[in-house]
Amino acid sequence: MNIRYQQIQGRSLGFYALIAGLGVLILASLGSVLFMEHHGHYVTGMSNRIVWGMPHVFALFLIVAASGALNVASIASVFGKKIYKPLARLSGLVSLALLAGGLMVLVLDLGRPDRLIVAMTEYNFNSIFAWNIILYNGFFVIVAVYLWMMFERRMNKFTAKAGLAAFSWRLILTTGTGSIFGFLVARQAYDAVIMAPMFIIMSFAFGLAFFILILMASYKWTERPLGDVIVNRLGNLLGVFVAAVMYFVVVKHLGSLYLAENSGVESFILFGEHVYTPLFWIGQIVIGGLVPMALIYHPALKGNRSTLGLASILVLIGGIAQLYVIIVGGQAYPMEIFPGKEILEGYGGIATYTPSLPEIILGLGGVAVSLIAVTFLIKFLPFLPESLADDVADPHHKK
Amino acid sequence: MKHLLIIFLTLSLNSVFAYDGDKHVNLGDKATELKEEGRSRDIHPSLSEIRKMHPAFLMHKRDKTLRQGVRSKRNSLKQCVDCHSATKNDEYVPVNAPDQFCSTCHQKVGTSLDCFSCHRTTPEEDL
Amino acid sequence: MSKKLNRRDFIKSTGVATASVATIASGISLTTFAADENPVTNEKRWGMLIDTNKLTETNIDDMVFACQEENGWGFEEHSTGDQKANWIRKVKVKDKATGKIDALPMMCQHCDEPPCVDVCPTNASMKREDGIVLVDRHLCIGCRYCMMACPYDSRSFVHEDLSNQKEHMPRGKGTVESCTMCVHRVDKGEMPACAEAVNSDAVIFGDLYDANSKINRVLKKVQSTQIRADLNLNTGVRYSGI
């Protein structure tokens, strides 16, 4: 069965409105960067206690989602599921676009973004951050090659191999991202090896949610046929991934509660009086976990695209909440500098952090960069199959 | 490799742009004095060398000082600032201010001057 | 230094290596310090022993003040609260069982295995051969990963533009900084400013490896601790009395 790929026309009013809207957001985020870099970070909510704030939440969210968005392609070329094959090109594109957006936010929140060249020329191979720089750059190259293999007919025969390389690379990449936190021995909230696999499974869920939204929106807006077989498969998969994230969250917190040294930070997150507790229970567990699962699995809503779209959006919101709790919440709770002693003065207490508007806009700007990249590229290159109707996508589909 | 590249770029850029002639407008107080006494060659034996190579000298020196604790005065930025600062109304003018020693050239050749986002721009001593 | 640069001074200070011996008040030799042109070596390891029993809270405040004066931090105009630089501070702790209260100065502990150096992507966080942990601001991109990794919360991020820095202590917006053990003084054979601000028995500075140094001899006799010794970082700053 041959799948025909075709660029979108991209001449409608809606297309230009989308581009303009995203463009405004990107300009606003660049303005925020100029503002923050001109004044220095004192205009942000961050401090010496909360050194990574809202921009890092968005950056890591996008980077994590990026590696997950590649999964659809991997399922097709690594695990040989034919039905996902027509989606592989878009999967690679979404993945690269999300990574670009995430890295933009990460880089623009540096104290000295003008010295990015230093980060590319001076490597400390003991640093997980330095590995990540290599992993991110490598990901761009490998996925680009993978896409080329898919686009170029003569190279099609290498697609499976390139896909395997990209799949392995993305697993290492997310392990690296999770390890940024997992290896911080001094911080009770992070020092756990489970961070790496948890980040991998989070990436599955967030990446797929982004992918589903982009797929459904682009087919709806271009009025191309998109059959239920594919959509329902992706929906079910999302449900499984969301459940898996919840499982890892439970294991992480149970494991952490078991250690007396971590009981303080655990009760701070799980049963505390600060914003992190409602963010955890309502944002991450209910909005990002239970509700999407209900929307996906409830028999009455089965196959309903609006509810699947809503579920995907909720997964993303829950993901932002989860990363906020991990990154900001984990820093807000003081480190155990003097085990067995109570600190009366000079350190301790819950650090406060109120995200400033420029930080939030910078984060949203990263999302906008990802979306604008996808929008433009599907206009200029044939990423999307002309039709994903059931009989095209699934040869064995019975009418 | 990287150092070679830097030196190469510095050389090639500066041989194109290096400010020729000896009519520098704002040499700084001590440097002017030394020059009038005819002693500037004692400090910078070759003017073209220091003009072309000062980024490389400073880079080399900064690593030696910071990482190895070698605090000799030759090629130390402190010494540059010390001699090349000018005074105005009994106050030192920052060397990176417009029309001052560092900025005149750097502006002319359009290269950024990053030293003074951290380093002090005037000699420490009060006038 | 006189305003005129004397050529002979210039040559003397740059040319022939000169060695000298610095002696501190108590008559303990700080040992010969490296001549101008010689890099520091790992034959030394600078350290500090802080006896909290011999320090009053006022003493600790004096140490903090001396550091601020020496290095010029803490006078940021726009930064507020936790945004302000904080290289050394007074910490008061109470034992949960006995209720004993101790006050101590906290700063960079100059670890032998510094987590900040391990995590720094650009090698800006670094440890000199003689054990002093520094930030090379020329390479620092302001990612703040070192601040996440430091178990002692002893690093600060410069949140705003600075001017009028100390000549010997460059500092600037967007980079991370911390206690340098007054490396510019140590290289001249002097003591860190905080150690000089108080009684020489309360804060002993010196070469941990040198069997003749006061710090080495006292450490062999008295019970001392490293903060978060469980992390096995082998800190250069040691405490006794807590």
What would your notes on this structure say?
The complex is a heterotrimer of chains A (399), B (127) and C (242). Chain A is built from 14 helices and 1 strand; from the N terminus they run ααααααααααααβαα. Chain A has 399 residues and is an all-alpha fold. Chain A is 68% helix and 1% strand. The two termini of chain A are 17 Å apart. Chain A has helices at residues 13-39, 54-69, 71-77, 88-108, 116-121, 128-151, 159-182, 195-221, 228-258, 263-271, 276-297, 305-332, 357-380, 390-393; one strand at residues 341-345. Chain A is globular, with a radius of gyration of 21 Å. The longest helix of chain A is centred in the middle third of the chain and has 31 residues, at 228-258. In chain B, helix 1 (2-17) packs antiparallel against helix 4 (47-68). Chain B has one domain (2-18, 26-117). Chain B is mostly helical. Chain C is an alpha+beta fold and 242 residues long. Chain C has a single domain (27-240), classed as 2-Layer Sandwich (Alpha-Beta Plaits). In chain C, 20% of the residues lie in helices and 17% in strands. Chain C contains 7 helices and 9 strands. In chain C, a hairpin with a 5-residue loop joins strand 4 (125-127) and strand 5. The radius of gyration of chain C is 18 Å and the shape is globular. At the A-C interface, helix 5, helix 6 and strand 1 of A face strand 2, strand 3, helix 3, helix 4 and strand 6 of C. Strand 1 of chain A pairs antiparallel with strand 2 of chain C. Chain B: It comes from Candidatus Thiodubiliella endoseptemdiera.
